[in-house]
Amino acid sequence: MYDEMALAKRLNSIEQLQADASIKQHVEWVKKQRIAG
After folding, report:
1. How far apart are CA 27 and CA 37, in angstroms?
2. Number of domains in the chain
3. What one-character-per-residue DSSP string does 5-34 give?
4. What Cα–Cα distance (Å) separates residue 24 from each residue in 4, 9, 14, 20?
5. Segments forming the whole domain that contains residue 32
């Protein structure tokens, strides 16, 4: 994904994170995962 510097410089707001295609795809994948335990 992204390192801390990229997040700090380019993706430093909720709006930018929500607009990013890679982040969107990852969030959709996470939503489909089962909770262990």
Report:
1. 21
2. 1
3. HHHHHTS-SHHHHHH-HHHHHHHHHHHHSP
4. 18, 19, 12, 6
5. 4-36
- Give the torsion through C-alpha atoms of 2, 25, 30, 16, to 10 deg: 60
Residue 20 token pair: 């990013």
Structure tokens of 27? 């969030």
Q: Which residues contact 18 (CB under 8 A, 6 or more apart)?
A: 24
What the block records as the tokens of 1 is 């994904």
Give the pTM.
Answer: 0.70
- Other C-beta atoms within 10 Å of 20: how many? 16
pLDDT tens figures, 7-28? 999 999 999 999 999 999 999 9
